[in-house]
Design brief:
alpha+beta, three-stranded mixed beta sheet
Amino acid sequence: MKKHRYPEANRRARFKKRNLGYIPLFDNPYPHYDVRSVDMHHVNGMICIPLPHRTHMLVKGRNSEKHKQHCLYMIQKLYLLDLDSLLKP
């Protein structure tokens, strides 16, 4: 987890992720990249998908729904996956 300059920011970042699991849907397809240039995007509370850092952070801020929609679009474009049908029970 990224260390922030102020301790309260560290605490807020930790509490945001406290209920999220970490099960990668597939291995990182970008092995030649540095580990820091790939982020794991949570598609639900447990499952993560690797995305390039710049792609993952194009939409950021307080609007998490916009971030989720953009990441879903990029996952469909990069990996040709339909997550809605893939994760449906």
